[in-house]
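Q: Got a minute? One more chain.
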Amino acid sequence: MSAGRLLSVLLLLQSRGRMSARAIAEELGVSVRTAYRDVERLQGAGVPVCAEPGRGGGYRLLDGYRTRLTGMTEGEARALLFAGLPDVAADLGLAAEVSAARLKLLAALPAGAREEAARTATVFHVDAPGWYREPERTPYLPLFVDATLTQRVVEARYRRWRAPQEVSRRLRPYGLVLKSGVWYVVAATESGTATAPAKAATYRVAQVLDATLSDERFDRPRDFELGAYWASYLADFEARRYTGTATIRLSPRGRRRLPDNVAPEVVRAVDATATAVGGDGWVEAVVPTESTMHACGELLRLGVDVEVVAPAALRRAMADTVGALARAYGVTGRA
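A: Always. Here it is, folded:
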């Protein structure tokens, strides 16, 4: 039984008045039999659902009965989206609102549904940050939440990778994205016009050095869709990320270790291009690379289980690094 579905039935009856079992079933995408069972469970839990037979009949709540869900504040209703993500809510500065909204939601549920919701909460946990990484400090994230929701300009000082590293920007935040534990704000730096909308860009919130919320308002483009923008941004990022290729050889152990040490795109490339070399299980494959130094650092994680065949610059970088390591440990030749 889904506590969420029972709550949906309850809210449907409260908001729409009388509904037939078939109408409830169509609204929730379940069978009519399931709709009947859900109504019976609501009745069994003490919710005053009245049945009216005949043409034009159906189910309705007893006159005067209301749930307490409408008692939520604007902030609590906003925070309800993150009720199952307490760490995310805390990052956004919505921890208190989430806690209050959750208590009101549970209090409004019938006893049986309340127990089901509480039991469900004990068997799911979301941990957004990736492995081997400390959570980033994002002291200005709540400010960007406020700016995004109230459509106000943010005066920000930002640290980027290319020179000059520290720049000042007047950001018009369109939305926030959490990617593998890292927060990004999608924002425009210009107001744009109806015929020439402002171009949005992506900023890592942890790289914001200082930010001030101004009183200046902006209009978020009506046709801007955050999910579509992010999908396009990721596709463009991947296209720009890899600028070359390398031919490598991998031992059987190296291939097994590959997913834990390199990007998924590299693993897929090995799977797609691997051909056997010799009779000892080694394979040769062509993989995408970002830069010589990045590829060198990534492939060195595999140690003796990888050999770079080409390009020469990458092969030389691998050899130089291994040579430097050998000298650092006092190894000058083969034992």
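A: Residues 230 and 236 are 10 Å apart (CA to CA).
Q: Perfect, thanks.
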